[in-house]
Each structure stands twice: as structure tokens, then as C-alpha cells.
Amino acid sequence: MLDAKFVRLQDLLRGYGSCLVAYSGGVDSVFLARVAHEVLGERSLVVIADSPSLPRRELAEALAIAEQFRIPVRVVRTAEFSDPGYLANPT
After folding, report:
1. How far apart, in whole angstroms, are the C-alpha atoms of residue 52 and residue 2?
2. Which of 1, 47, 60, 69 is least surrounded, with the fewest CB atoms within 10 Å of its CB?
3. Rounded-to-integer distance, Cα 88 and Cα 91, Å
4. How many Å from the N-terminal Cα to the C-terminal Cα in the chain?
5. Are the beta carbons of 66 and 46 closer than 8 angstroms?
6. pLDDT in tens, 40-91
7. Beta bridge partners of 75
């Protein structure tokens, strides 16, 4: 059954023609990024948000994992700390 699901994932990605993977460095996003890159090559893009709230260690680990699997990754800087609503952190 797992083989069938894996083949289905590959077929879905191939059918898209291209894709953007929101990447965190966690198990799920690494798996999807790797499969997308294997299936679509340069037509897949992996993006991680570099936020002031993201510990540097976690960003470094995510980038190291992507490098280990030769997955190109783009880092997009975010600025949520400039949003008073984000900083208020209401209940």
C-alpha cells in the first residue's frame, strides 16, 4: 500500500508540472521537498521563511538538511515583528 501511495504522490507532482514547497526542515516538508525535486527537478522550488521568531539553529539545521539532499532552497525574509498585532500576541 505504501508503494502505491508513493507512486500516487509522484504522479500528482508530475501532473502539476511545477510546485512550491513550504519548507521547515521537519520530516514532512523534507520528504515532500525531496520527492518534488526528484520528480520535477528545477521545476520545483523549496522556500523557507527566515523570521526573527525562528531560532538561528533551526534555520541552519533546515538548510543543512536541504544541502545534504541537494535540494535547492530559497530563504525569504519575513518581518512579522513590524506588525503590532503579531507582537501583541493576544489570547
Report:
1. 38
2. 1
3. 9
4. 43
5. yes
6. 999 999 999 999 889 999 999 999 999 999 999 999 999 988 988 888 888 7
7. 48
Query: Is there a contact between 17 and 45 (Cβ–Cβ < 8 Å)?
Result: no
Give how far the C-alpha of residue 35 lies from the chain's centroid of Cα atoms, to the nearest Å: 12
Look-up of cell digits 522556500: 47
pTM of the model: 0.86
3-state helix, strand, coil in the chain (%, to 5): 60, 20, 25
CA-based nearest residue to 42, from 74, 5, 64? 74
State the Rg of the chain over Cα. 16
With CA atoms as reference, report the closest residue to 46 among 10, 21, 24, 64. Answer: 21
- Reported residue count of the chain is 91
